[in-house]
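Worked Example 4.2. Consider the chain below.
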Amino acid sequence: MDAAFWHQRWQENLIGFHQADINLHLQTFWQRLGLEPDDAVFVPLCGKSRDMLWLGARHPVLGVELSPIAVEAFFAEAGLVPRHSEEHGFCVRETDRMRLLCGDFFELEPQQLAGVGGVYDRAALIALPERLRGPYAARLNQLLPGATAMLLVTMEYQQAEMQGPPFAVEEAEVRSLFADRWSVERVYEQDVLATEPKFRQRGLSRLSEKIFVLRC
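Applying the procedure from the previous section yields the following structure tokens:
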């Protein structure tokens, strides 16, 4: 998956990964991270997720997104008028509580994540093919300040049955990617295939959703 792939998906509005509703797992498990109201929350590969509005009512939010279409759509659909600026090669759109950096996640610098106390990853790790998941986890470790907590959502299925994204990320891989620095606690698991007809239509025989709380 290269940048051109994601730009094309947004240009053609092929964004089946976008959820119109606030993620239920976010609402259920977020408090387990134990963040303070002043702790900023980092949302990697954020798209135009409405989850950021829910988070923004509780914390300052910092998102990074490759597609300018997604960034502009987020503010327009939320009825927000952002300020515009440039920072370290990123186009910045921000309000008092919401700051979105338009550019490549892998080009971020640690100073841009100063003040971050939590991470919300619903659609970043599972958007990446296997060859990029290790570099993604390593870059997170380089970018994040001190003690940080993360809410991570993953999907497990037989990868041979469907071409990602979203990609299958097994629990063993999550632990392999993060256990050197993070404690990894699985807090939820459910077979969701019965409630996901689009994935049944794509040929999946099973689909498990797992939620993890990570701390470092």
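The chain has one domain: 3-12+22-215. The mean pLDDT is 93. Compare this with Example 4.1 before moving on.
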